[in-house]
Amino acid sequence: MRAIVVRPPAPGASLRDLPVPPLAPGAVRVRVLEVGVCGTDHDIVTGKYGRAPDGEDYLILGHENLGEVVDTSAGASGFSPGDLVVATVRRGCGRCRFCLANRSDFCETGGFTERGINGAHGYMADEYVEIPEYLVKVPAGLRGIAVLLEPLSVVEKAIAMGQRVLDRKEPTPGFPPTRAPTALVAGTGAIGMLAAFVLRNRGYEVTAVDRHNGTPAEALLARIGARHANVAGGLSALGPDRFDLVIEGSGSALLNFGLVDILAPNGTLVLTGIPDVNAPPTSVMGGALFRGIVLQNHAVVGSVNANRTYFETGLADLGAFEARWPGAVEQMISTRRPLEDYSDVLMGRIGGTIKAVLTISGGASSR
To answer: How far apart are CA 274 and CA 271, in angstroms?
Structure first.
């Protein structure tokens, strides 16, 4: 089978022919249809991180996925050939209480693996084999957008974590809300745009920021009733606005410090972007930063990965998005390219994209 492989920590990626993985008892064989490409893939290809499986010198890349079941072995219940599926990414350590409860996103030992990222082969190949526990069945009607489910699961978890912190205020019986809840999304890549969809669908007034005007992201935000702001000159472009919930998807440490300052009283900032550890040091007024956090009841939360629960929530939300804004979610997929175009896609040489997708088998036409 064809597969895109890397050899971390060495930079670079290549298209190789590899043996088809055997179908183990209790497992399902999946033909890969599409794989989304994100910043994590780019960082692995450029040698910033990534780890091959133990005993091997290469890693099959890819963690955002959509596939079709082609075969099942004895003991693999719940799936049949032709089913559309998305596989989760993280596999637990098998030792801590969270991993034993299928909540490996909160692993306490750090001994987890992640398919296509850390110690386990990914999905950027013609086929993979997996056990049903890690497969989420997708309705045929969501075929065109289901490749977005993995990044959406990350968003679902981040927003859930933020909402739980906001809810620490507890209800005020007999008093209606002072105003509609407000949210800011920092970054208009796939994570930021999906966050805008989720938050708008849940009744938030949403502002999304980036450093550009006149982009497809700006037009798509307008379609779902969200505001766009260009903050190339700084967050002062937002004026006096303050936000109950801020979802960060930029990976900019410098921006993150500024995001604390635009939280409303009792507000929460959830960080999902991963800054470059080798970026130049950032100077901040630490006293003012922490003084504001304490006096305004602010909270700053990190959120990574997602367990199966958030994939299932995301699947329900994809259906809700399609009902409310027909065809809007698929506009996030800016380009679909055949697997052979992997180099341009992985290295970000396709400009103006929100989400680039590699088609492996039976994918939609390139555009």
So the answer is: 8
The pLDDT of residue 362:
62
Model confidence, pTM: 0.95
**Fold classified for 2-138+332-359:** Quinone Oxidoreductase; Chain A, domain 1 (3.90.180)
CA distance 195 to 332: 12
Q: Looking at 37-189, list the stretches that DSSP marks H as alpha helix, in order from N- to C-terminal side.
A: 39-45, 97-100, 149-166
| Residue 94 identity (one-letter amino acid) | G
Surface-to-core class of residue 143, CB atoms within 10 Å of its CB (0-12 exposed, 13-18 middle, 19+ buried): middle
Answer yes or no: are the C-beta atoms of 145 and 329 closer than 8 Å.
yes
Q: Which of 88, 50, 118 is nearest to 310 (CA)?
A: 88
Residues forming beta bridges with residue 29, ordered by sequence position:
71, 129
Fold assignment, 154-302 = Rossmann fold (3.40.50)
For the stretch 126-142, pLDDT in tens is 999 999 999 999 999 99
Q: Which two tokens stand for residue 187?
A: 């970054």
Residue pair 358/338 in contact (Cβ under 8 Å)? The answer is yes
Q: Is the separation of the CB atoms in 137 and 85 below 8 Å?
A: yes
How many whole angstroms separate alpha carbon 162 and alpha carbon 310?
Answer: 14
Residue spans per domain, the chain: 2-138+332-359, 154-302
pLDDT per position as a tens digit, 81-134: 999 999 999 999 999 999 999 999 999 999 999 999 999 999 999 999 999 999
Contacts of 125 (CB under 8 A, 6+ apart): 1, 2, 3, 4, 18, 32, 60, 62, 360
- Whole-number Cα distances in Å, 239 to 192, 218, 236, 262, 356: 21, 19, 5, 10, 33
Question: At residue 330, what is the residue type?
Answer: E
| Pair 28, 15: CB distance under 8 Å | no
How far is residue 151's CA from residue 259's CA, in Å, rounded to a whole number? 22
Distance CA 271, CA 250 (A): 9
